[in-house]
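Section 4.2 – Deliverable D4.2 (structural model, holo form)

The reporting period included a commitment to supply a predicted holo structure for the target in complex with nicotinamide-adenine-dinucleotide. Inputs used:
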Amino acid sequence: MTEARSNRKVLVLPGDGIGPEIMGEVMRVAEFCDRRGIARFDLSQGLVGGAAYDASGVPLADATLAEAMAADAVLFGSVGGPKWEGLPFELQPERGLLRLRKEMDLFANLRPAVVFEALADASALKRDLVAGLDLMIVRELTGGIYFGQPRGIETLPDGTRRGVNTEVYTEAEIERVVRAGFDLARKRQRRLCEVDKANVMESGVLWREVARRVHADYPDVELSFMYADNCAMQLVRQPKQFDVIVTSNIFGDILSDCAAMLTGSLGMLPSASLGAPDATGRRRALYEPVHGSAPDIAGKGVANPLASILSFAMMLRYSFDQADAAEMVEGAVRRALAAGARTADIAQSGMTRLVTREMGDAVLRELARAA
Ligand code: NAD
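Output (structure tokens):
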């Protein structure tokens, strides 16, 4: 076991809806790791989203942003809910998360799609296609068509209107996310697939050129290319062919949701968003479940905490280089599922449905066996 270092600053932002409920279970896992000397943190809590708006009139206070910038990692729950839906656009809870991503310059979004053996039947695909699946999509998060200029809806001289968005990437933007993809592949099966539409888009041609150039620094990683439409097809035809996929913002948005359904449940999906490493190798990072604040079940204590617990494991791996501790947490989740632990969202008929706290108990029990 890698020796646990202390004084790693982690800012915890539970947010709204089920956010505080699932984060409660993450904190119990963090306390366990601390008690057993597996991983130590200097944890502080802050407000984000609707909770921050209620307290301070903005979805992310400047002081909280400053704390996030200074932290080694941010653990994020979820934001949003009907209570704040009528607010002006700039004050909506989701703006708090978008501001964090922008200010922290989190350009690489990591979305793993892992199928746990015990849940292989919950996938939209047949068991043999997905059993054992473990792929990672790296989506560029701060550039591309969602931000490119020019954009807008304009009225033409003939009175008809035209909507415009622009796919634009600089070489530097491509290079940093492609490097993140190569670095990840190196820690996995050493295969990277760059996905684009180079057959019809010049920006895709540049993505390929940059990927080929950067490949020279990673001769131990196999690089391949695929068009995005084919990738969508291959993800449902034969998903296990992939190790790491790196792609632009819009293609990553679509393909990662497609890959998510291979795993069966929203309540199981973790994610990480990473910034560029500084001279000391430290990079800003935010870890969060893929799901939202689930207002329909918020306050009932029945939400699945596993996506958040798996996001915590990603933090151990990617921010603190503790792959062994991350595997310990992931292994505890896997064994809890294998032993039949299910919250309502992943339970099949006839199975006992655990509440949030009981699912946390099940993971902690397995952790205690392994530690
Ligand atoms: P959602 O992910 O909150 O919920 C979709 C469905 O999945 C709901 O039926 C919900 O009960 C269920 N679900 C989600 N997470 C679950 C979990 N951990 N355990 C069990 N069931 C779970 O998406 P939505 O309903 O489209 O959005 C609700 C709110 O969340 C909106 O305000 C939206 O803007 C916000 N949102 C926030 C984030 C974020 O914080 N990153 C992401 C997506 C949506």
